[in-house]
Amino acid sequence: MKQIFSKQITEFCNGKLIGADLPITSITTDSRKIENGCMFIAIKGERFDGHSFIEQAWSLGADCVLSQTAFDVPEGKALILVEDTRAAMLRIANGYRNLFDICLVNITGSVGKTTTKDMTAAVLSQGGKTLKTEGNFNNDIGVPITLFRLEDDIKTAVVEIGMNHFGEIDTLASACEPNIGIITNVGVSHIENLGSREGILKAKCEMLPHIKKGGYAVLNADNDMLATVKGREKEFGLPEDVTAVWYGRDKSNDVWADDVVSHGIDGMECTIHMAVGEIRVHITTAGEHMVQNALAAAAAGEIIGLTPEQIKKGIEGFEPTGKRMEVIRLKNGGTIINDCYNANPVSTKAAIDVLSECDGKKTAVLGDMGELGSFGAEMHREVGEYCAEKNIDHVVAIGELSKNMYNACKDKVAKAEYFATVADYIATNPTVSDNEYILVKASHFMKFEQITSILENR
User: In sequence order, what E strands does 213-275 have?
Assistant: First the structure.
Protein backbone atom coordinates (compact mmCIF):
# COMPACT_ATOMS: atom_id res chain seq x y z
CA MET A 1 0.00 0.00 0.00
CA LYS A 2 1.29 3.44 -0.81
CA GLN A 3 1.22 6.14 1.86
CA ILE A 4 -1.95 8.14 2.36
CA PHE A 5 -3.03 10.35 5.27
CA SER A 6 -5.77 9.96 7.84
CA LYS A 7 -7.39 13.23 6.68
CA GLN A 8 -7.59 11.88 3.13
CA ILE A 9 -9.07 8.61 4.39
CA THR A 10 -11.65 10.61 6.34
CA GLU A 11 -12.66 12.41 3.16
CA PHE A 12 -13.00 9.11 1.29
CA CYS A 13 -15.53 7.77 3.82
CA ASN A 14 -17.24 11.02 4.92
CA GLY A 15 -16.20 10.34 8.51
CA LYS A 16 -15.09 12.57 11.38
CA LEU A 17 -11.38 12.75 12.15
CA ILE A 18 -10.49 12.93 15.83
CA GLY A 19 -6.80 13.48 16.52
CA ALA A 20 -3.81 14.00 14.25
CA ASP A 21 -3.49 13.87 10.47
CA LEU A 22 -1.04 10.97 10.21
CA PRO A 23 0.59 9.03 7.37
CA ILE A 24 -0.89 5.55 6.91
CA THR A 25 1.10 2.82 5.18
CA SER A 26 -1.15 -0.23 5.72
CA ILE A 27 -4.75 -1.06 6.61
CA THR A 28 -5.96 -4.17 8.43
CA THR A 29 -9.04 -5.63 10.09
CA ASP A 30 -6.93 -8.26 11.88
CA SER A 31 -5.54 -7.17 15.26
CA ARG A 32 -2.81 -9.80 14.88
CA LYS A 33 -1.42 -7.96 11.85
CA ILE A 34 -1.14 -4.51 13.41
CA GLU A 35 2.15 -2.74 12.70
CA ASN A 36 3.58 0.74 13.05
CA GLY A 37 1.93 3.21 10.70
CA CYS A 38 -1.18 1.14 10.06
CA MET A 39 -4.89 1.87 10.36
CA PHE A 40 -6.94 -0.72 12.21
CA ILE A 41 -10.56 -1.11 11.06
CA ALA A 42 -12.86 -2.33 13.83
CA ILE A 43 -15.43 -4.69 12.29
CA LYS A 44 -18.48 -5.71 14.29
CA GLY A 45 -19.49 -9.26 13.38
CA GLU A 46 -21.92 -11.87 14.64
CA ARG A 47 -19.36 -13.57 16.90
CA PHE A 48 -16.80 -10.85 17.53
CA ASP A 49 -16.45 -7.07 17.76
CA GLY A 50 -13.23 -5.44 16.64
CA HIS A 51 -14.03 -2.41 18.76
CA SER A 52 -12.86 -4.46 21.74
CA PHE A 53 -9.32 -4.33 20.29
CA ILE A 54 -9.11 -0.60 19.51
CA GLU A 55 -7.11 0.44 22.55
CA GLN A 56 -4.85 -2.58 22.09
CA ALA A 57 -4.38 -1.59 18.43
CA TRP A 58 -3.02 1.81 19.42
CA SER A 59 -0.67 0.21 21.93
CA LEU A 60 0.62 -2.22 19.29
CA GLY A 61 1.58 0.60 16.94
CA ALA A 62 -1.52 1.48 14.95
CA ASP A 63 -1.56 5.22 14.27
CA CYS A 64 -5.24 5.37 13.34
CA VAL A 65 -8.42 3.37 13.89
CA LEU A 66 -11.70 3.37 12.01
CA SER A 67 -14.55 3.04 14.48
CA GLN A 68 -18.29 3.42 14.81
CA THR A 69 -17.86 4.08 18.54
CA ALA A 70 -16.14 7.12 20.10
CA PHE A 71 -12.98 6.54 22.20
CA ASP A 72 -10.53 8.81 24.02
CA VAL A 73 -7.75 9.16 21.47
CA PRO A 74 -4.18 8.95 22.78
CA GLU A 75 -1.86 11.83 21.99
CA GLY A 76 -0.26 11.48 18.59
CA LYS A 77 -2.90 8.98 17.40
CA ALA A 78 -6.09 9.31 15.35
CA LEU A 79 -9.62 7.91 15.17
CA ILE A 80 -12.01 8.20 12.24
CA LEU A 81 -15.60 8.00 13.45
CA VAL A 82 -18.20 6.58 11.03
CA GLU A 83 -21.69 5.12 11.25
CA ASP A 84 -20.75 1.73 9.77
CA THR A 85 -17.14 0.57 9.48
CA ARG A 86 -17.89 -2.11 6.86
CA ALA A 87 -19.56 0.39 4.54
CA ALA A 88 -16.85 2.97 5.24
CA MET A 89 -14.15 0.43 4.42
CA LEU A 90 -15.63 -0.01 0.93
CA ARG A 91 -15.76 3.76 0.38
CA ILE A 92 -12.13 4.08 1.48
CA ALA A 93 -11.16 1.25 -0.87
CA ASN A 94 -12.90 3.02 -3.75
CA GLY A 95 -11.10 6.29 -2.98
CA TYR A 96 -7.79 4.47 -2.79
CA ARG A 97 -8.48 2.53 -6.02
CA ASN A 98 -9.01 5.81 -7.88
CA LEU A 99 -5.56 7.07 -6.92
CA PHE A 100 -4.19 4.67 -9.55
CA ASP A 101 -4.29 4.76 -13.33
CA ILE A 102 -4.60 1.01 -13.82
CA CYS A 103 -6.77 -1.46 -15.68
CA LEU A 104 -8.92 -3.20 -13.07
CA VAL A 105 -10.80 -6.37 -13.98
CA ASN A 106 -13.77 -7.62 -11.97
CA ILE A 107 -14.76 -11.27 -12.32
CA THR A 108 -17.98 -12.85 -11.10
CA GLY A 109 -20.06 -15.89 -11.98
CA SER A 110 -21.78 -18.91 -10.50
CA VAL A 111 -18.98 -21.29 -11.47
CA GLY A 112 -15.36 -20.86 -12.45
CA LYS A 113 -14.74 -17.30 -11.29
CA THR A 114 -11.66 -18.19 -9.22
CA THR A 115 -10.13 -20.27 -12.02
CA THR A 116 -10.93 -17.52 -14.53
CA LYS A 117 -9.41 -14.98 -12.14
CA ASP A 118 -6.19 -16.98 -11.91
CA MET A 119 -5.99 -17.53 -15.66
CA THR A 120 -6.80 -13.90 -16.47
CA ALA A 121 -4.11 -12.72 -14.07
CA ALA A 122 -1.64 -15.12 -15.68
CA VAL A 123 -2.42 -13.61 -19.09
CA LEU A 124 -2.42 -9.95 -18.02
CA SER A 125 0.85 -10.40 -16.13
CA GLN A 126 2.49 -10.81 -19.53
CA GLY A 127 1.99 -7.06 -19.95
CA GLY A 128 3.26 -5.98 -16.54
CA LYS A 129 2.94 -6.48 -12.80
CA THR A 130 -0.54 -7.76 -11.96
CA LEU A 131 -2.38 -7.88 -8.65
CA LYS A 132 -5.02 -10.56 -8.08
CA THR A 133 -7.42 -11.63 -5.36
CA GLU A 134 -5.82 -14.15 -3.04
CA GLY A 135 -7.80 -17.12 -1.72
CA ASN A 136 -11.52 -16.43 -1.33
CA PHE A 137 -11.21 -12.71 -0.50
CA ASN A 138 -14.22 -11.84 -2.66
CA ASN A 139 -16.65 -10.30 -0.15
CA ASP A 140 -17.09 -6.85 1.42
CA ILE A 141 -14.03 -7.39 3.62
CA GLY A 142 -11.81 -9.28 1.17
CA VAL A 143 -12.34 -6.96 -1.80
CA PRO A 144 -11.18 -3.80 0.05
CA ILE A 145 -8.21 -5.71 1.49
CA THR A 146 -7.26 -6.63 -2.08
CA LEU A 147 -7.62 -3.04 -3.29
CA PHE A 148 -5.43 -1.80 -0.44
CA ARG A 149 -2.61 -3.91 -1.92
CA LEU A 150 -2.43 -1.65 -5.00
CA GLU A 151 0.95 0.01 -5.59
CA ASP A 152 2.24 2.48 -8.17
CA ASP A 153 4.15 -0.20 -10.10
CA ILE A 154 1.05 -2.39 -10.66
CA LYS A 155 -0.29 -2.23 -14.22
CA THR A 156 -3.41 -4.40 -13.91
CA ALA A 157 -5.53 -5.85 -11.12
CA VAL A 158 -7.88 -8.83 -11.29
CA VAL A 159 -10.43 -8.73 -8.47
CA GLU A 160 -12.95 -11.51 -7.90
CA ILE A 161 -16.33 -10.49 -6.50
CA GLY A 162 -18.81 -12.95 -5.01
CA MET A 163 -22.31 -12.80 -3.64
CA ASN A 164 -25.16 -14.80 -2.19
CA HIS A 165 -27.81 -12.06 -1.99
CA PHE A 166 -29.12 -9.26 -4.18
CA GLY A 167 -27.20 -6.00 -3.89
CA GLU A 168 -23.83 -7.50 -2.99
CA ILE A 169 -22.34 -7.37 -6.50
CA ASP A 170 -23.67 -3.82 -6.81
CA THR A 171 -21.82 -2.82 -3.63
CA LEU A 172 -18.53 -4.54 -4.49
CA ALA A 173 -18.42 -3.38 -8.11
CA SER A 174 -19.12 0.20 -7.04
CA ALA A 175 -16.01 0.02 -4.84
CA CYS A 176 -13.90 -1.44 -7.67
CA GLU A 177 -15.18 0.57 -10.64
CA PRO A 178 -13.74 -1.96 -13.09
CA ASN A 179 -12.42 -1.14 -16.55
CA ILE A 180 -13.30 -4.69 -17.59
CA GLY A 181 -16.11 -6.76 -16.09
CA ILE A 182 -16.21 -10.52 -16.74
CA ILE A 183 -19.26 -12.70 -16.02
CA THR A 184 -18.33 -16.36 -16.43
CA ASN A 185 -21.82 -17.89 -16.24
CA VAL A 186 -25.12 -18.06 -14.40
CA GLY A 187 -25.78 -21.41 -12.70
CA VAL A 188 -27.65 -22.43 -9.56
CA SER A 189 -25.25 -21.40 -6.78
CA HIS A 190 -27.10 -19.43 -4.07
CA ILE A 191 -30.46 -20.17 -5.68
CA GLU A 192 -31.72 -20.66 -2.11
CA ASN A 193 -31.39 -16.90 -1.54
CA LEU A 194 -32.07 -15.60 -5.06
CA GLY A 195 -35.13 -17.70 -5.89
CA SER A 196 -34.44 -18.60 -9.52
CA ARG A 197 -31.77 -18.57 -12.20
CA GLU A 198 -33.40 -15.38 -13.51
CA GLY A 199 -32.74 -13.88 -10.09
CA ILE A 200 -29.12 -15.03 -10.20
CA LEU A 201 -28.71 -13.44 -13.65
CA LYS A 202 -30.09 -10.16 -12.33
CA ALA A 203 -27.72 -10.28 -9.36
CA LYS A 204 -24.63 -11.00 -11.52
CA CYS A 205 -25.51 -8.18 -13.92
CA GLU A 206 -25.41 -5.69 -11.03
CA MET A 207 -21.74 -5.32 -12.01
CA LEU A 208 -22.47 -3.88 -15.45
CA PRO A 209 -23.47 -0.28 -14.53
CA HIS A 210 -20.22 0.18 -12.60
CA ILE A 211 -17.85 -0.48 -15.51
CA LYS A 212 -15.88 2.69 -16.18
CA LYS A 213 -16.42 4.85 -19.24
CA GLY A 214 -14.70 3.34 -22.26
CA GLY A 215 -14.56 -0.06 -20.59
CA TYR A 216 -15.66 -3.54 -21.59
CA ALA A 217 -18.09 -6.21 -20.41
CA VAL A 218 -16.78 -9.70 -21.26
CA LEU A 219 -19.68 -12.17 -21.31
CA ASN A 220 -20.07 -15.92 -21.92
CA ALA A 221 -22.37 -16.57 -24.87
CA ASP A 222 -22.31 -20.33 -24.21
CA ASN A 223 -24.23 -19.92 -20.96
CA ASP A 224 -27.95 -20.22 -21.56
CA MET A 225 -28.90 -17.45 -19.14
CA LEU A 226 -26.21 -14.95 -20.15
CA ALA A 227 -27.06 -15.59 -23.80
CA THR A 228 -30.44 -13.95 -23.17
CA VAL A 229 -28.57 -10.68 -22.50
CA LYS A 230 -26.98 -10.60 -25.97
CA GLY A 231 -28.41 -7.70 -27.94
CA ARG A 232 -30.15 -6.42 -24.78
CA GLU A 233 -27.05 -5.38 -22.81
CA LYS A 234 -28.36 -1.88 -22.12
CA GLU A 235 -31.54 -3.32 -20.59
CA PHE A 236 -29.30 -5.07 -18.04
CA GLY A 237 -27.53 -1.84 -17.09
CA LEU A 238 -24.55 -1.71 -19.47
CA PRO A 239 -23.67 1.98 -19.98
CA GLU A 240 -23.77 3.43 -23.50
CA ASP A 241 -20.02 4.05 -23.47
CA VAL A 242 -19.10 0.47 -22.50
CA THR A 243 -18.52 -2.25 -25.12
CA ALA A 244 -19.87 -5.79 -24.77
CA VAL A 245 -17.39 -8.50 -25.81
CA TRP A 246 -18.89 -11.97 -26.21
CA TYR A 247 -16.94 -15.21 -26.08
CA GLY A 248 -17.91 -18.83 -26.74
CA ARG A 249 -17.63 -21.81 -29.05
CA ASP A 250 -19.54 -20.25 -31.97
CA LYS A 251 -17.60 -18.22 -34.54
CA SER A 252 -20.23 -15.46 -34.35
CA ASN A 253 -18.64 -14.34 -31.06
CA ASP A 254 -15.89 -11.76 -30.71
CA VAL A 255 -13.54 -14.36 -29.21
CA TRP A 256 -14.20 -18.01 -30.00
CA ALA A 257 -12.67 -21.48 -29.92
CA ASP A 258 -12.68 -24.52 -32.15
CA ASP A 259 -10.67 -27.73 -32.70
CA VAL A 260 -11.15 -28.59 -29.03
CA VAL A 261 -9.35 -31.74 -27.93
CA SER A 262 -9.54 -33.30 -24.47
CA HIS A 263 -6.48 -35.00 -23.02
CA GLY A 264 -8.43 -36.26 -20.02
CA ILE A 265 -6.85 -35.35 -16.71
CA ASP A 266 -3.88 -33.91 -18.61
CA GLY A 267 -5.91 -30.95 -19.78
CA MET A 268 -7.44 -29.45 -22.90
CA GLU A 269 -6.24 -28.15 -26.23
CA CYS A 270 -8.02 -25.69 -28.51
CA THR A 271 -7.57 -22.93 -31.06
CA ILE A 272 -8.63 -19.48 -29.88
CA HIS A 273 -9.66 -16.92 -32.50
CA MET A 274 -9.42 -13.17 -31.79
CA ALA A 275 -9.38 -10.02 -33.89
CA VAL A 276 -5.60 -9.86 -33.38
CA GLY A 277 -5.04 -13.41 -34.59
CA GLU A 278 -5.42 -17.04 -33.54
CA ILE A 279 -3.44 -19.23 -31.15
CA ARG A 280 -3.26 -22.94 -30.42
CA VAL A 281 -3.11 -23.43 -26.65
CA HIS A 282 -2.73 -26.30 -24.22
CA ILE A 283 -4.59 -25.76 -20.94
CA THR A 284 -3.03 -27.83 -18.20
CA THR A 285 -6.23 -28.26 -16.15
CA ALA A 286 -8.85 -30.82 -17.19
CA GLY A 287 -12.42 -30.12 -18.23
CA GLU A 288 -14.11 -28.66 -21.30
CA HIS A 289 -15.27 -25.73 -19.20
CA MET A 290 -11.61 -24.66 -19.04
CA VAL A 291 -11.90 -23.59 -22.68
CA GLN A 292 -14.47 -20.96 -21.69
CA ASN A 293 -12.21 -19.73 -18.90
CA ALA A 294 -9.36 -19.42 -21.39
CA LEU A 295 -11.58 -17.46 -23.79
CA ALA A 296 -12.45 -14.95 -21.07
CA ALA A 297 -8.77 -14.53 -20.22
CA ALA A 298 -7.86 -14.16 -23.89
CA ALA A 299 -10.54 -11.49 -24.35
CA ALA A 300 -9.13 -9.50 -21.43
CA GLY A 301 -5.62 -9.85 -22.84
CA GLU A 302 -6.73 -8.64 -26.26
CA ILE A 303 -8.51 -5.65 -24.70
CA ILE A 304 -5.37 -4.41 -22.94
CA GLY A 305 -3.32 -4.79 -26.12
CA LEU A 306 -1.37 -8.00 -25.59
CA THR A 307 -0.06 -9.94 -28.59
CA PRO A 308 -1.36 -13.42 -29.42
CA GLU A 309 1.99 -14.82 -28.30
CA GLN A 310 1.70 -13.12 -24.90
CA ILE A 311 -1.85 -14.41 -24.45
CA LYS A 312 -0.76 -17.95 -25.34
CA LYS A 313 2.13 -17.80 -22.85
CA GLY A 314 -0.20 -16.60 -20.10
CA ILE A 315 -2.82 -19.29 -20.67
CA GLU A 316 -0.26 -22.09 -20.85
CA GLY A 317 1.52 -20.81 -17.74
CA PHE A 318 -1.68 -20.71 -15.65
CA GLU A 319 -1.72 -22.73 -12.43
CA PRO A 320 -5.04 -23.19 -10.59
CA THR A 321 -5.57 -22.42 -6.93
CA GLY A 322 -5.12 -25.60 -4.82
CA LYS A 323 -7.86 -28.21 -4.44
CA ARG A 324 -9.39 -27.35 -7.82
CA MET A 325 -9.08 -30.28 -10.24
CA GLU A 326 -5.68 -31.08 -8.73
CA VAL A 327 -4.31 -34.35 -10.12
CA ILE A 328 -2.43 -36.42 -7.51
CA ARG A 329 -0.65 -39.44 -9.01
CA LEU A 330 0.13 -42.13 -6.45
CA LYS A 331 3.14 -44.46 -6.47
CA ASN A 332 0.91 -47.55 -6.75
CA GLY A 333 -0.55 -46.36 -10.06
CA GLY A 334 -3.76 -44.90 -8.65
CA THR A 335 -4.83 -41.28 -9.19
CA ILE A 336 -6.80 -38.81 -7.08
CA ILE A 337 -8.64 -35.91 -8.73
CA ASN A 338 -8.82 -33.47 -5.84
CA ASP A 339 -11.59 -30.93 -6.41
CA CYS A 340 -12.83 -30.49 -2.86
CA TYR A 341 -12.56 -26.70 -2.54
CA ASN A 342 -16.23 -26.22 -3.37
CA ALA A 343 -19.10 -27.74 -5.34
CA ASN A 344 -22.39 -27.01 -7.03
CA PRO A 345 -24.37 -29.07 -9.55
CA VAL A 346 -22.69 -27.52 -12.60
CA SER A 347 -19.11 -27.88 -11.37
CA THR A 348 -19.78 -31.38 -10.02
CA LYS A 349 -21.11 -32.57 -13.37
CA ALA A 350 -18.10 -31.01 -15.10
CA ALA A 351 -15.78 -32.93 -12.77
CA ILE A 352 -17.71 -36.15 -13.43
CA ASP A 353 -17.20 -35.52 -17.17
CA VAL A 354 -13.44 -35.48 -16.59
CA LEU A 355 -13.58 -38.65 -14.49
CA SER A 356 -15.64 -40.42 -17.14
CA GLU A 357 -12.81 -39.98 -19.68
CA CYS A 358 -10.24 -41.76 -17.49
CA ASP A 359 -9.05 -45.15 -18.69
CA GLY A 360 -9.42 -47.27 -15.57
CA LYS A 361 -11.77 -47.83 -12.65
CA LYS A 362 -13.76 -44.66 -12.05
CA THR A 363 -14.78 -43.81 -8.48
CA ALA A 364 -16.63 -40.64 -7.47
CA VAL A 365 -16.56 -39.67 -3.80
CA LEU A 366 -19.19 -36.93 -3.66
CA GLY A 367 -20.69 -34.91 -0.84
CA ASP A 368 -23.35 -32.33 -0.08
CA MET A 369 -23.59 -29.17 -2.18
CA GLY A 370 -24.72 -26.13 -0.21
CA GLU A 371 -27.08 -23.18 -0.68
CA LEU A 372 -29.56 -24.96 -2.93
CA GLY A 373 -32.55 -24.50 -0.63
CA SER A 374 -35.70 -26.31 -1.68
CA PHE A 375 -33.93 -27.39 -4.89
CA GLY A 376 -31.32 -29.37 -2.92
CA ALA A 377 -32.87 -32.85 -2.99
CA GLU A 378 -33.70 -32.69 -6.69
CA MET A 379 -30.25 -31.40 -7.69
CA HIS A 380 -28.48 -34.08 -5.70
CA ARG A 381 -30.66 -36.71 -7.41
CA GLU A 382 -29.64 -35.24 -10.78
CA VAL A 383 -25.96 -35.66 -9.90
CA GLY A 384 -26.56 -39.30 -8.95
CA GLU A 385 -28.32 -39.92 -12.25
CA TYR A 386 -25.49 -38.17 -14.08
CA CYS A 387 -22.97 -40.56 -12.53
CA ALA A 388 -24.93 -43.46 -13.99
CA GLU A 389 -25.19 -41.79 -17.40
CA LYS A 390 -21.43 -41.28 -17.45
CA ASN A 391 -20.73 -44.92 -16.51
CA ILE A 392 -19.01 -44.19 -13.22
CA ASP A 393 -18.11 -47.56 -11.68
CA HIS A 394 -18.29 -46.71 -7.99
CA VAL A 395 -20.19 -43.85 -6.33
CA VAL A 396 -19.63 -42.93 -2.70
CA ALA A 397 -22.21 -40.40 -1.46
CA ILE A 398 -21.59 -38.64 1.86
CA GLY A 399 -23.88 -36.27 3.74
CA GLU A 400 -27.54 -35.73 4.45
CA LEU A 401 -28.49 -34.35 1.02
CA SER A 402 -26.24 -36.82 -0.79
CA LYS A 403 -28.53 -39.67 0.21
CA ASN A 404 -30.66 -38.45 -2.71
CA MET A 405 -27.62 -38.90 -4.94
CA TYR A 406 -27.11 -42.43 -3.67
CA ASN A 407 -30.76 -43.41 -4.10
CA ALA A 408 -30.73 -42.11 -7.69
CA CYS A 409 -27.81 -44.26 -8.80
CA LYS A 410 -27.61 -47.26 -6.47
CA ASP A 411 -29.37 -49.57 -8.93
CA LYS A 412 -27.67 -48.10 -12.01
CA VAL A 413 -23.94 -48.27 -11.25
CA ALA A 414 -21.72 -51.25 -10.46
CA LYS A 415 -21.27 -50.16 -6.84
CA ALA A 416 -22.82 -47.41 -4.72
CA GLU A 417 -22.31 -46.64 -1.04
CA TYR A 418 -23.79 -44.09 1.32
CA PHE A 419 -22.25 -42.63 4.49
CA ALA A 420 -23.82 -40.06 6.77
CA THR A 421 -20.50 -38.38 7.62
CA VAL A 422 -16.92 -38.06 6.41
CA ALA A 423 -15.80 -39.84 9.59
CA ASP A 424 -18.02 -42.82 8.76
CA TYR A 425 -16.40 -43.16 5.36
CA ILE A 426 -12.86 -42.75 6.68
CA ALA A 427 -13.59 -45.47 9.27
CA THR A 428 -13.85 -47.98 6.39
CA ASN A 429 -10.13 -47.43 5.65
CA PRO A 430 -10.60 -46.42 1.99
CA THR A 431 -7.66 -46.79 -0.39
CA VAL A 432 -6.89 -46.15 -4.04
CA SER A 433 -6.06 -49.24 -6.10
CA ASP A 434 -3.79 -49.56 -9.09
CA ASN A 435 -5.32 -47.94 -12.20
CA GLU A 436 -8.16 -46.44 -10.18
CA TYR A 437 -9.19 -42.80 -10.57
CA ILE A 438 -10.97 -41.27 -7.59
CA LEU A 439 -12.74 -37.92 -7.84
CA VAL A 440 -13.16 -36.20 -4.45
CA LYS A 441 -15.68 -33.34 -4.56
CA ALA A 442 -18.11 -31.56 -2.22
CA SER A 443 -18.89 -28.11 -0.88
CA HIS A 444 -16.16 -26.72 1.35
CA PHE A 445 -18.15 -27.13 4.58
CA MET A 446 -18.02 -30.92 4.13
CA LYS A 447 -14.22 -30.82 4.75
CA PHE A 448 -13.42 -33.40 2.10
CA GLU A 449 -9.75 -32.44 2.28
CA GLN A 450 -9.66 -35.01 5.11
CA ILE A 451 -10.57 -37.69 2.61
CA THR A 452 -7.95 -36.57 0.11
CA SER A 453 -5.29 -36.62 2.81
CA ILE A 454 -6.25 -40.14 3.95
CA LEU A 455 -6.29 -41.51 0.40
CA GLU A 456 -2.99 -39.88 -0.50
CA ASN A 457 -1.18 -41.08 2.61
CA ARG A 458 -2.43 -44.65 2.32
Answer: 216-220, 243-248, 255-262, 268-274
